[in-house]
Write a structure and sequence with these properties.
six-stranded mixed beta sheet; rod-shaped
Length: 346
């Protein structure tokens, strides 16, 4: 039986002309370099210096997160060699905060961030991690954050400084108090669904292109000893530009007939047998409505025509004027359009 020439540095077949290992069965077979960490036979065995060697370099094939056995080792988890696994990541929320870690799931990378949106606050911190600090806050005119995030004003914020509302800054920076600045547009005088003491209210309209903060404004009537109320609040009482707002005797919509009230007044009521509502601002009368006892229907507001929202045109409360009883049912069953465009379109 012929001796095979193995790769061992010995002339096993006694034939000096044949190369060492020329008949070794392992020669030319796939092999894995034992110096790398994978088990992939990506090299070929050769005979060198009397010993078998493998052409597979020592570089390890890492197991990436791709659903494949990259390192040819069934004992390692998919993605076990992926550098991205375990790195910080941001989930599918709207902030940019890296609050999760990348994990390998079903052959692809996923982020463990299951937190909600981090909302930017006005606090000198980049809460939503978008590199910008306190973005979205108007530090020049926001009375809650005037000039900086820590300064809250009891009244107006003008050009980044707290400013008292006055006849020259009439609930808005740089706008003087003038008649007609606000218009009384709806009166709920005689309620049916709830008691008058719970459900009375009146509506104001802001015809301007700027918001108006009502703090410091005065509601009054013409009684010998006037009923008056000065609007006061730690928070702005704002009627947005070109918008309606309701002031009422009761701000609880569960007990006031279902009305959303911007501001609850006291020491003031709307008389069923005739009365007045006068709105003053720092000594300037902005608007007034005076009515007789026949003006107010039971269970319905009186509305100023939506085509005549003017402080002079609301003076005539007789049958020939621009006031009519509301027809739209709201809340607990009375009729009116509190805080919305009026029904009447004379």
């Amino acid at each position: 039986m012929s001796a095979l020439d193995l790769c061992n540095g010995t002339d096993d077949d006694c034939d000096a002309a044949s190369a060492d290992g020329s008949e070794d069965a392992a020669l030319g077979q796939p092999c894995d370099n034992p110096a790398d960490s994978d088990l992939c036979a990506t090299g070929v065995s050769s005979c060198s210096g009397g010993a078998l060697s493998c052409s597979d370099d020592a570089a390890s094939t890492l197991d990436l997160c791709n659903g494949l056995d990259d390192d040819c080792n069934g004992g390692t988890a998919d993605g076990s060699g992926d550098a991205s696994v375990g790195s910080a990541c941001d989930g599918p929320d709207t902030d940019a905060c890296m609050e999760g870690l990348r994990v390998c799931s079903a052959g692809s990378l996923a982020c463990s961030d299951a937190t909600g949106d981090e909302v930017e606050l006005c606090n000198g911190i980049d809460d939503d991690c978008d590199v910008a600090v306190d973005e979205g806050f108007d530090l020049s005119s926001d009375p809650n954050h005037c000039g900086d995030c820590l300064t809250a004003c009891s009244n107006l914020c003008c050009s980044g400084g707290c400013t008292a509302s006055s006849v020259t800054n009439c609930g808005a920076c740089g706008h003087a108090c003038v008649p007609g600045m606000l218009v009384i547009t709806e009166l709920m005088i005689d309620t049916s669904a709830v008691n008058d003491t719970q459900g009375e209210w009146f509506e104001l309209y802001n015809p301007n292109s700027w918001d108006i903060d009502l703090r410091g404004f005065v509601i009054r009537d013409l009684n010998a000893t006037p009923n008056t109320h000065t609007i006061s609040s730690p928070q702005p009482v704002v009627i947005p530009a070109s918008s309606y707002a309701v002031l009422g005797i009761n701000a609880d919509s569960a007990t006031n007939g279902g009305v959303t009230v911007l501001y609850q007044y006291s020491s003031f009521a709307l008389g069923n047998s005739g009365d007045e509502v006068i709105l003053d601002a720092f000594g300037v009368e902005l608007d007034r409505v005076v009515w007789a006892g026949t003006f107010d229907p039971l269970g319905a507001s009186k509305e100023l025509s939506r085509n005549h929202l003017d402080y002079l045109l609301n003076d005539d409360t007789t049958a020939t004027g621009f006031w009519r009883a509301a027809v739209t049912v709201f809340g607990a069953g009375d009729r009116g359009t509190p805080g919305a465009v009026n029904d009447c379109s004379l």
